[in-house]
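Quick one, T. Sequence first:
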Amino acid sequence: MPPKKPPLTHFLCLPLSSQTATPQWQASLKHFTSNVESLYSSEAGSAAASSAPNFPTIARSVPDKAIRPLGTLHLTIGVMSLIKPEQLDAAVELLQNLDLVTLLVKANEQQESGQSAEATAAPTSSKNYAGMPKNPEDEASQSRQSPSPSPLILSFTGLQSMHSPKSTSFLYIPPTDTTGRLYPFCHTLKDRFTRENLILEDTRPLKLHATVLNTIYAGKFYPRKGQTPVQAERLGAECGSPDRGSRREHDTEEPANNEPNHKGHEAAEEGTAELEGKHRVSVAKKKGKSRKETVKLDARSLLSRYVDFTWARNVRIEKLAICEMGAKKIIDDSGNVVGEEYTEIASAALP
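C-alpha cells:
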C-alpha cells in the first residue's frame, strides 16, 4: 500500500490582486464569464459534447463554481503541509527573514548569466549553511551594497489548458515578465522553503500559472452510460444528498490516457476544493456506477478566442504570502456572498 499523502494545509504564493490590478482583472473575468456562458450554452454545449464521443464526461455547460473568483488569483510557488503549530511558526519566521531585495537582484544576475537558481541563491534562514547564526551586520552591509531593484511587473496574456484541450478541467493564464526575473526568483524561494522542509518536495518543473477555470470546484459525478455532467447534476439535485465523503481530502485526479501528469501543478487548487467539500455535481453512489469523475469540457474554441487576449498588464507584484488552503467566502453587510479569497497567514512586501 502506498504511503498516505500528507494533507495540504498552506501554500506559498504571489497574490495577483491589488488596488491597481483589480479593475483590469474584474473587467477581464467578466468578459471571460460572458464568453463561457455563450459558448457553453445548452445548444452550443450539446454540439461540443457530441463532437467528442470518446470523452463521455464532456460538459454541455460550465458550472459557475468552475470559474475562479478575483480574490483567489495567485501564482503558487509551492504547497505546504504544516500540521504542527511549530511548523507554521517556522514558515512564517523564514518568510519574514527573507531579504527580498537581494533575492530580486540575484534573480536579475541569474537571468543575465544563465546560472541556476541554486547556484546563486542567498541564505535566507536565521542560520547559514554551516548551521551558524548569520551576522546581522553582514546582512545589513549586503543590503546596503545591493542596488535597489525595480518592482516585479507582470502581464497576463492568452489562455492555456493543463490537459488536452479537447477534454480538460483546468484552464490558466501564463505570466509574462520582460525582465526574466520571475522564474529565477521563485525557484530560489521554493528551494529555500524546501530545504527547511516547509514546502513539499516536488521534482517536477515549476509551472507558474493563474488559474481562471477549474471544474473540480464544481464537484464530481458518477457517470452512467451516455450520461452528461448536466444530467448528473440534475439527478444530484433531485437526490438532495451529494456524496461528500467518498474521496480522501487532497487526492488529485489521475491524468487521462496519453496526457502529461500535472498533479503537482494542480495540487493547491484541488486540495483546496476538497477541503471546501464542493461536490454538488455528484450523485449518491449506487451499485453498477463507475468511479466518480471530474467534469471535463472541450476548450478548443474557448482557447482560440483568448489566444491573444490580455487579461491584465503591468501588474505590480506587491508581496509574497503564505496562505491557508480553502478560499473563504466574502460576505457583505447584507449577508450576500460577494466573492472569495484565501486567508493570508503572513506576508512580506516586495520592493
